Amino acid sequence: MTGSAGADLQVQAIGNDEDVVRVRQLVRTVAVAAKLSLVDQTKVVTAASELARNTLVYGGGGQAEVSTVDNGKRRGVRVVFSDSGPGIADLDLALTDGYTSGGGLGLGLSGARRLVDEFELETAVGAGTTVAVVKWAR
Ligand SMILES: Nc1ncnc2c1ncn2[C@@H]1O[C@H](COP(=O)(O)OP(=O)(O)OP(=O)(O)O)[C@@H](O)[C@H]1O
Ligand SMILES: [Mg+2]
């Protein structure tokens, strides 16, 4: 992941629906501080909302770490979601448009990946899932 994480890192626990709203609000605030355009703010907030919901629904809860990043040329917002849930056995399948194991639309992960500039997913069955995303100001 390019850029250094800011000293402004904030952690939001994800244990219920209200926490998902708090993640959205926190990401919006940090995206504004990083001077993202309104469209890019909305993209990263939408991605974060989907990933926070997955953390809650499939991961059994977890947390989001939100910070600004700076690569020397641009500022951006970085969000890292982590849970200690069951993990994802087939990552390619999970990232396929329309695949859901839980009766959703199956567009959360794939959509989130398209909405951000950087997307890294690490998962281990039985151990949990971490998704890190960055959206840069342009
Ligand atoms: N944190 C996670 N832990 C375990 N499995 C996950 C996690 N996030 C996603 N998955 C798996 O990946 C699948 C695809 O996720 P995705 O967000 O794309 O779809 P969905 O949540 O099922 O539906 P939607 O997000 O469209 O409502 C999920 O159905 C689930 O099986
Ligand atoms: Mg989802």
From TrEMBL:
<dbReference type="Pfam" id="PF02518">
    <property type="entry name" value="HATPase_c"/>
</dbReference>
<feature type="domain" description="Histidine kinase/HSP90-like ATPase">
    <location>
        <begin position="39"/>
        <end position="138"/>
    </location>
</feature>
<dbReference type="InterPro" id="IPR036890">
    <property type="entry name" value="HATPase_C_sf"/>
</dbReference>
<dbReference type="InterPro" id="IPR003594">
    <property type="entry name" value="HATPase_dom"/>
</dbReference>
<protein>
    <submittedName>
        <fullName>Anti-sigma regulatory factor</fullName>
    </submittedName>
</protein>
